């Protein structure tokens, strides 16, 4: 299939590439299992307008047909990188909003990326100034698409997505992480321009020394917990958890390598063996991280893990609550959903 051939190409082109999330194709069968569980047999599909979206549709459409599920429409979501492209994209894709409204399907399965989500949010924002009715769909979203917003959009309503389900990269909370987040301050991060840029955008203030308008100056005492959850979450997200595990996996491989006298001698002679040694150890590594999750890779160098099924609750004040309502076991045959709980 398309996903399998792509993974094979990756192994040839990048033999040292490891995936810190399970193969995304498991989510497609997971979505089919959700459709069957709730009796949703008439659904809409959306895919980002690029090669990834093409592969998604090539895999998803046969799955729907094989499981007696029909699709009412297919929407291709745009990607944009520059502001000057935005107006043209909005004009081109405005009809997509009308199509979604007109169709009777109540379930909308979306495969997208963050840039395409931002375009959709702008469409939803502009729809408030028209006579078009609000979207009333159950959204099911793949793990690539999260609900983080640009600072420009942080106060825009998110009620449209209230009750959405997403396949989220599994995450947990390492001990001390939330306390660490609460200590973040732009003043102690010298040389870290990211935190300073984030601080200015999140709190709509400036850290520059010379200010014409002192009221818009950052004090450095702003509280991250006051930021709307749609812009910044105080808990570790799945993407951050993947980075956390990647660092620990490499650290465990390096530790194992330097414990071996024979390997250390070979490194003294030929430093170029470092990468090969780490690669060999990563392929066979298995350990428990600080929260007790087991970390190891399969033969395709993909993390052996499942996806959390997350229910998103969006409130008018901008707060966001995400609740784990189930789990997709990606290693089980034909995708197995466990512990599915009632949700909004």
From TrEMBL:
Receptor ligand binding region domain mapped to chain residues: 15-312
Gene Ontology cellular component list: plasma membrane
Annotated localization: Membrane
Predominant place of localization: membrane
Signal peptide: none
PANTHER family referenced in this protein's UniProt entry, alphabetically: CALCIUM-SENSING RECEPTOR-RELATED (PTHR24061), G-PROTEIN COUPLED RECEPTORS FAMILY 3 PROFILE DOMAIN-CONTAINING PROTEIN (PTHR24061:SF599)
Lineage: Eukaryota, Metazoa, Chordata, Craniata, Vertebrata
InterPro entries: ANF_lig-bd_rcpt, GPCR_3_Ca_sens_rcpt-rel, Peripla_BP_I
Keywords of the record: Membrane, Transmembrane, Transmembrane helix
Protein name stated in the entry: G_PROTEIN_RECEP_F3_4 domain-containing protein
Molecular-function GO terms, alphabetical: G protein-coupled receptor activity
